[in-house]
Amino acid sequence: MKAFELETFIEKRQWIGLFAIVICALAWTMEIIGSVYICPYCRVQRTVIGILGFILLLPFSYHWLVKYAAIVLGFFGAVIASNQHFMGWKKISSGEFQFNDNIFIDPFLLSGFALTGIIGMTCLILKLQNKKV
C-alpha cells in the first residue's frame, strides 16, 4: 500500500509538521487553561513534538546541521517519554497501575504516543534529501 511507504510520508511532511505543531499548541493550551495537571515530562514531550514539527516545515530541513539538531532534540524527547512510559510499566509490574479517570489525558498512553511520534518525526527528518540535486 502506498499509504505506508516512506516516500508518502516524505511527500506529506508539511502536513505532518503542521499536525505536530497543532498537537503541541493544543497540549500547551490545555495546561495553560488548567484542564490538565502540570507535568515536566509532558512539557518536554509536547515542546519537542512542536519543534520537530517546525523543523519538518523548514525548506532546508535536509541540511546536516538541522538533522543534527533534530537528532539531539529527538533523542532528548524520546528519553523523557520512555522514562515516563517506563514508570507506567513499573506500576503494572507492581500491581499498582490504574488508568486515569479521563483516558484522554492518561500519562501512560500519552507518553507512548509521544515516544512513537518523536522517534517517527526524527527518523523522517533524517531521511529528507535536497530535491535540487
UniProtKB/TrEMBL annotation:
Q: In the UniProt record, does the keyword Transcription regulation occur?
A: no
| Protein name as it appears in the record | Disulfide bond formation protein DsbB
SUPFAM superfamilies per the record?
A: DsbB-like (SSF158442)
Principal subcellular localisation of the protein: membrane
Q: Which residues cross the membrane?
A: 15-38, 44-61, 107-126
Superkingdom is: Bacteria
* Membrane-related topology note: Multi-pass membrane protein
Where in or outside the cell it occurs: the entry states: Membrane
Q: Which UniProt keywords apply?
A: Membrane, Transmembrane, Transmembrane helix
